[in-house]
Amino acid sequence: MMISIQEITYRQNVASILLNAAKTFFYLLIRIPALLFDLPICCFARKISNKERQKMLEVLESGDILLTTDKLFPLWEFLAAFLGSPNYSHAAIYEGEERVIEATTFHPSLQGVAQTAVQDFLSGRKKVCLIRPPFRSVEDKNAMMTWLRQQTGKPFDFYFRLEGENAMYCSKLVAKAMKVAGFKVNIKRKFRREGYVPDAFLQMENANIVYQKMETSVEKMLTYLSLVFALLVCIAGIAPWWTVCLALFGIGGLQLVTKL
Predict the structure, then answer these.
(1) Structural domain includes residue 123
(2) Residue 249: closest CA among 232, 234, 230, 228
């Protein structure tokens, strides 16, 4: 029985659609645990001011490491602290030309490793630290940047594996980029599992911190004020827990979208 070219093409298209649908379903399935961490929670922490952002942009150079903690996502902050990174929960590298390369679960392109405008990256209610690795030569830095650009489009590593380059999480991407440039990055071992954490880049030999603004005690209190208030409301029985959660996530989402 002869099969026409049109029918073969049709079957190939159907197979391609089903394969893409399966990939999307699998991606969403393994992403479910991370969805909870990606829910923004109402926060009263201070936003990065235009003056602070401009100061960071003036000192940024290609190859610099950016460490951040986004106060709208305290669950990621708690998880990072639990795994051995109490100061910062995210790491990325400044590519230059006002672009940052990062591995994230929260990118508009739905890609794990992607480029982000530095203005967007340095916005919101974040604590930021900028680190300048002591590159031995321009060639080492260029080799690292070339490797880094080749990683864009790869999925996020929800298993947080130490080895392999098929998928990346934030610290793994930065650590492997640093290794390409010849730097040693400490590995954190926790509960018989090894991995990279953002705070490890603070311990890089001869690395220079070019920007870091420490939090005051008041700023730390403001970060978790909404969570404490919500807990007290639930304990006092003023409102059911589910309405309190809706309020926390709703206001947090509003702050994220509108950049309030």
Answers:
(1) yes
(2) 230
Token pair in block for residue 45:
């922490």
Give the integer Cα–Cα distance in Å for 109 and 83.
28
Write down the pTM of the prediction: 0.83
3 state SS of 12: helix
Q: What is the per-residue pLDDT across 99-147, written as a single tens digit (0 to 9) for each?
A: 999 999 888 887 889 999 999 999 988 999 999 999 999 999 999 999 9
Q: How many CA atoms lie within 13 A of 220 on its CB side?
A: 7
Q: To the nearest whole percent, how much of the chain has pLDDT over 70?
A: 90
Q: What is the spatial distance between Cα 74 and Cα 248, in angstroms, rounded to a whole number? A: 12
Q: What is the CATH number of the domain that holds 114?
A: 3.90.1720.10
Would residue 140 count as lying in a domain? yes
